[in-house]
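Pasting two entries for a bug report.
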Amino acid sequence: MKKFLISISVMCVLILTIAVAVTAASETDYKSLAQNVSNGLKSVFQDENAAKKSVEVAGIILGEEVSSQQFEIRAKAYELTGSKAPYTDAWNSFKIQVYEHQYAKEHGILPSEEEIKTFSSEMRKAVESSPEGREVQKILFEGMGMTADEYWNDYKIKYEAPYHLTKIKINDYITANKLEALDETTILKEVVVEKMDPIYENKI
């Protein structure tokens, strides 16, 4: 079961929230859980308007645009893992993500392209090291409408690995320099979503 938890945590669109959902899953029901997640992700990944939403702007955070497609994917991930306010949680996660990206940039610790590719490759090895991991990724990729190579060599490198690795590098930097940890509560209070698409304003 431990390997399955690791697999799900590095595989899904929103790593941390998916991990929470599978914590209580047993060996016998992890397939059902993965299938439910896959079915839910299908509605956003294989939406007939996906291409249009990939260039539409859901909102702007600290000058950085968040696409409607990526926002809806993240909100759906929160919904699938039991969030009572998936749109609010999605916006909050983007606030932290953008803030951390800018913090890393200012301190010269943004991950390099090579580091991102290596990170994704290592995650793939971890997932595919067990039968459960291979089975889960197959189920999830069916919902996402991707092959394993498309996910690990393209999607993850573009949308997931940079965020995940930046967070790791910030934590390492703060620890090495004995700095005060970033306060997410303060970040969420100070960072706002500008020019939010009205379609999402009514959902938070």
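Entry 2 (this is the one that rendered wrong in the viewer):
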Amino acid sequence: MSTSTATFLTSEPAFTIFVVVITAVITGFVTYWFGFRQYLKERRWERVRKTYIEDGLGKVIDGTDQLSTACYLNYGKSTLVFNLLESTVEEPEKAKETAKKIFSEMERANLAPNYGMLKLAIFNNQPIILLVVQMWMEFQQLAETIRHIGWQGIEDYFSGQQTRTEEERRSFLSDQKKIIREEWNKVIRKYEPLKGHLLRLQIEVDKMDILRVEDIDKIAQQSEIKKILAEIGTQYKSEIDKLPGSANEGE
């Protein structure tokens, strides 16, 4: 070390500056290191949550909402059409084009069961997976049934309305509304509670600190989640007993 350098470091002001610089460098490095480690932890937390929660239960709830919305829209449109036809029963042709246009624009429920459903295995409860698959299938069938029954109904109405009296037309339209309403009630009343249970499960999972893959195993052990799953098992016992693999299947 040169004499001038040694003199600089041993002088009090210079030494103080040197210590401050070294301290700042070390502090900055330590801060960066712990910040980087925290960043990696948060990224891992986000990845675990997205993989097992958002791409599982989250997508199941989103898909369920999409399918049930199609059913609600189609039912609402079919009711609108038949009410319109009832209001023009004296002159059926006045509403013909409007009725057919509304039915042609009804929603198609095209959403097949997906891999996200298998991630419901985090609840360690096979029946809930099969129940959700069944619910999706019945929602899709309902949306298509409303479209088919409604379209066929107005086709029959207009092809035979010239030979019917006004009272017969009213009776025909009333019968069509009843058929669609019965199909609607059969499916919607059955699965609306299950939709609510899925949302409650989502809320309880969101309350949990899931930082590692190992934490996924704790979900099914959470007391409130156990309670919700038990309620599903009780409320849907007759449906569960008919599911594939059930001990009471086929009875």
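Dev reply: Rendering is fixed now. As a check, the viewer should reflect this: The helical segments are 3-10, 12-87, 96-104, 115-118, 126-160, 166-206, 223-235, 237-241.
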